[in-house]
Amino acid sequence: MASPPRPPPASSLAPIKVPMELHAQNREKLTHALRQHLAASSRPTHGFVLLQGGEERTRYCSDHVELFRQESYFAYLFGVKEPGFYGAIDVSSGKSTLFAPRLPADYAVWLGEIKPSSYFKEHYMVDMVFYVDEIAEVLDRQYGGPGKPLLFLLYGLNTDSNNFSKPAVLEVPLSRPSLQLFFYCFVGLWGPGMEKFDTDLDTLHPILTECRVIKSELEIALIQYANDISSEAHVEVMRKAKVGMKEYQLESIFLHHVYMYGGCRHCSYTCICATGENSAVLHYGHAAAPNDRTLKDGDMSLLDMGAEYHFYASDITCSFPVNGKFTVDQLLIYNAVLKAHNNVLSEMRPGVSWIDMHKLAERTILESLKAGGVILGDIDDMMAERFGAVFLPHGLGHLLGIDTHDPGGYMKGMEREKEPGLKALRTVRTLQEGMVITVEPGCYFIDALLVPVLENPNTSKYFNLNEISRLKGFGGVRIESDVLVTSQGCKNLTNCPRETWEIEAVMAGARWPLDDSASAASS
Amino acid sequence: MASPPRPPPASSLAPIKVPMELHAQNREKLTHALRQHLAASSRPTHGFVLLQGGEERTRYCSDHVELFRQESYFAYLFGVKEPGFYGAIDVSSGKSTLFAPRLPADYAVWLGEIKPSSYFKEHYMVDMVFYVDEIAEVLDRQYGGPGKPLLFLLYGLNTDSNNFSKPAVLEVPLSRPSLQLFFYCFVGLWGPGMEKFDTDLDTLHPILTECRVIKSELEIALIQYANDISSEAHVEVMRKAKVGMKEYQLESIFLHHVYMYGGCRHCSYTCICATGENSAVLHYGHAAAPNDRTLKDGDMSLLDMGAEYHFYASDITCSFPVNGKFTVDQLLIYNAVLKAHNNVLSEMRPGVSWIDMHKLAERTILESLKAGGVILGDIDDMMAERFGAVFLPHGLGHLLGIDTHDPGGYMKGMEREKEPGLKALRTVRTLQEGMVITVEPGCYFIDALLVPVLENPNTSKYFNLNEISRLKGFGGVRIESDVLVTSQGCKNLTNCPRETWEIEAVMAGARWPLDDSASAASS
Ligand SMILES: [Mn+2]
Ligand SMILES: [Mn+2]
């Protein structure tokens, strides 16, 4: 008996090698930028960059240890996956030192081999490795000069969270942040153990953040890989989504694909698996809205999911009808968003303002909604009144890297816009070669936004009221790709079915990418 | 053409309904116990239990929000999945109040529907719902008496983590723990906002912890379900494990199974997927040892994985040869552990000391090792010298509930033993009906433990040196089940293949539970 045809392999991908040169390059880039900055301001080009890596945390008072993921600035410079490390870079020589935690002997019984310093030196490609309790002594010896060595510590605002990064602290006996604050407030020093050093809290953060904004080739390769496996996982989800399933089952399929075949243990963010009316909730999927709705015939789904590989993120959104076939309304809204996405990609290049890209996406969506009869009136008037923010209340996209919302969106002197839509932008920068930024236009029918503009005669005039009342329960559509700015234009790192006929073909069982016959037949 | 036989369904299970009565019962149990305690010490039986639920946290300075999981004591009493709540119970009336966070208007755009108080009242079956900023006013009004109302706050030691639970605090303007400490140290009050109340930090913790130790029928049903889906997922992993795979692929199969078919978004703890020499690392699988080894022919695997369902844990370990066939050595070690596991289950009943159960497991393993020629000499001598702790360095098991290591293992007056093995016990209690406790004997060949005892003539005499040098790279075996203490004995809530021939049959493709023909043929 002939055996049945073998199913295609579950994935065409396998985890790629992680080059630790990436982090050595990141350190070199920082050292170079820091020296330039110091020289330009006539300051001595010596001192140490000192960063404290993250620590494992337990859940409240219990001994439940959360799976550790390294702090992102530390990951950028050192690539260390283990908790409890510090890292230093000598600004004048560029030499790097890791400080490993001194592990108790019974670590070997409970948690595994206690690796020697030589292991970390070789694995992480640093110049030296010592223990955390040796930091002050080692840096003082390396310095060797008169007076106190200068430490450049990381302290600055994250413009997405409004949180400040926490500068390294040495030997905090109670390991309590309160003690830290006490020292800072009353002793006037950044932390106990710091009295042997001069500290600079201002210089490092903006320079290191700026380093992270422009990606190296090695970084881009990891972001590309995270995109490859996540794109493939999105296709897998699309193929398996069926009416009657739960939203979280789509999440589970995605998580399994990127881990099983891609080696991605972490995702860049909690999966947003929104269907039906939930697709109008921009950040659905968190603990209070945990992807627990049942998929219904006629629903749109909006799936925003991305895997992380060796710290580097992907951030991808696909929207599709859960029954595999677009309705007329779904075609209208989806294609409005797709056109915005494509228009932005065709305009992106170095020198272009991201605010202009946001406005281009917004205008494109408004034009399509007008052509579809959903709204009426003059598009320029709507743009001037920021009416488009009703449908696209979030920013067009954000820098992407070791953080999903990578820092550096607003550097010193860049002001956040005040107007609807624009004020939500996570960056207002001009595009530069080497930036990776998400392009994620959306069009949503959100009650909380529609009700006030429908009640206001200045804005209600723009609506075709019949159409809008029909679309009120539509939910929303978002299409999100991760895009690299190149010297002449841009490159889309994401590879998912985007045209409606591509989506319908894949959901009907076609392979992705479509082969020529499928493409020819459908187009 | 006849269609091929349909594959069996991926799971025989589906998520069960969660009864919120469970938490109402938990509150009643606490109120009853608290009143009894107060009456017995001639104190007035009024006041309020006030607990603060957990908050969402971001990763370091970024806006990356970790997936929220409720603090366990709060989960026990209120079952609330959303962050930012407080809960109060009036000790005299037993009436319960939830305090919900007042959400900003744009929550509806970004995070979802702002649910009315009536929703929480009905869903969580409490008597009243107010906002967090109304706590002081509401409790004062409910109290109505002279003087200040008394608050019973949660403060006490977790004997697994050595951390203290954090008592509720009201209106901390900076939401900084440092401010809290400042108030406590310098103002002498537990927290700003607390000056309107008398506070009691001592009474609640031991009583509430003791409530958690004995499980209700509704609690047991959830632990049983978590066990059912996790047992099934372990079988799925057993069936799919193959030489050449990565350890994390076993983790991914497990996670997918419990989420996709069981609706379990959280696991009780980070999966331990240890193969080969890693199976001698008791808590393998964390970020510094991330399940990344390739499975080799001849390896044992030790997989400790359990799903959580509506806060309630499972904690299951299976050990099996990755190639599906036990070697002679693997049979010896595995059956030594299985016999210990089974002997303990046959002895467990109310009134039995857990220390005795640990010793029974240890003795059983030593006897098997002696019968197998691995060790030599008098078992009583070995027991007296605590020699068995070389092979079984961890405790036999722990209470299981909303935490994997559920609190209450050591109540007031119970001392931790000092001797090897026994000092690692997470509880030294006498078994009581309604306890759920893990039974997880293991036998490991851990270099860090073997080397010193081999170098010491007092202990090296017990070894057959040829055998032990051959077994040094063996790794380890653990068999872990979750066991309910019943009135007459105990009930194993876990259902995985345990006999070696059952494991081999399942790995060769047999269904689990084995049907009669498979059982008959193999036994
Ligand atoms: Mn995004
Ligand atoms: Mn356990």
Note down, in words, how this protein is organized.
Chain A is of the alpha+beta class and 523 residues long. The first copy, chain A, has 17 helices and 16 strands. Chain A has helices at 21-40, 72-78, 107-110, 117-123, 135-143, 177-187, 204-213, 217-240, 247-260, 328-347, 354-371, 379-384, 447-455, 457-460, 465-471, 500-507, 516-522; strands at 48-52, 86-90, 96-100, 128-131, 150-152, 198-200, 272-275, 300-305, 308-309, 312-313, 316-321, 436-439, 442-444, 476-478, 481-485, 490-492. In chain A, the strands form five sheets. A six-stranded mixed β-sheet of chain A has the order 4-3-2-1-5-6, with helices on both faces. A three-stranded antiparallel β-sheet of chain A has the order 7-8-11, covered by helices on one side. A three-stranded antiparallel β-sheet of chain A has the order 12-15-16, covered by helices on one side. In chain A, helix 1 (21-40) crosses helix 2 (72-78), helix 1 crosses helix 7 and helix 10 packs antiparallel against helix 11. The longest helix of chain A has 24 residues, at 217-240. Chain A starts with 20 loop residues before the first helix and ends with a helix. The mean pLDDT of chain A is 94. Chains A and B meet through helix 3, helix 6, helix 9 and helix 13 of A and helix 3, helix 6, helix 9 and helix 13 of B. The structure holds manganese (II) ion (2 copies). One manganese (II) ion is lined by residues 315, 398, 438, 440, 480 of chain B.
